[in-house]
Amino acid sequence: MEEFTDARPPEELLNHLKLEEPAAPESGPGSARQPRTAGGSYAPCPDPAEEPFHDCHDSFEAQSPVLDAEGSAEDEGSSSRKQTELDEESLLELERDLPEEEKQKRRKESTGLKEKGNEHFKKGDYGEAEDSYSKALQVCPACFQKDRAVLFSNRAAAKMKQDKTEAALSDCTKAVELDPHYIRALLRRAELYEKTEKLDEALEDYKAVLEKDPSVHQAREACMRLPQQIEERNEKLKKEMLGKLKDLGNLVLRPFGLSTENFQIKQDSSTGSYSINFVQNPNNNR
């Protein structure tokens, strides 16, 4: 076999050859050529999964809606108002140095927004009414507590119409805290408590209304009706609890061949105390 005896380095041997770069595939106007490194070779393509989408903002316009406390979608403005709604003490601190003229100006503006909300409410546009009351609360100075109590109560009414029960309860509570003698807010909160089966809290609010105004028929009727409902509810809960305790007792006693039927509870009529008697064959005593 003939040996290759040329001692020149491989780089010089290849100088006479003409290397052609492969033609880049045709692509659309939006494609880019693969970048080269400093040595002339091609850099590896980035992993598509790791490539940032800097120029795709417009393609993601449809974002997940923000949900309120009731699970309903709310608009961006409503969400932002919720985030910036401060407590009354913080508002008072922020407005401490506000000139009286500016306070009166804001009060007048909030009154106009409240009236606008009332108009929406009368038309059945409860979402628009809620929005107007929220804007009025943002404007109304915290020093006008009764004005703000009315706004919270009105917004609660608008939320009630939209079945936003928990949010309406919160607004009613704020209204009562600002004006403890505000009967309409107390009545609305009592209705909401009753609707959510918080009967004890509802009864307390109805009693508070009667203390302030004994002529309120709705409160008087509720104070006659709710005690019986509360008693029936408590009796039902007691039976359910005893049933669960009985099931638990049977689970524990079953490995010993016993059940809760082997234990009879008797109440002493004179003292009111209870005694437990063991019965070997409870079925024979029936």
From TrEMBL:
Renumbered ranges of TPR repeats: 110-143, 183-216
InterPro entries xrefs: TPR-like_helical_dom_sf, TPR_domain_protein, TPR_rpt
Presence of keyword Protein biosynthesis: no
Keywords of this entry: Phosphoprotein, Repeat, TPR repeat
Region (Disordered) location: 1-128
PANTHER family tied to this protein: TETRATRICOPEPTIDE REPEAT PROTEIN 1
Subunit structure comment from the entry: Interacts with the GAP domain of NF1. Interacts (via TPR repeats) with HSP90AA1 and HSPA8.
Name the record gives this protein: Tetratricopeptide repeat protein 1
Organism of origin: Pomatostomus ruficeps
Name of the gene this protein is made from: Ttc1
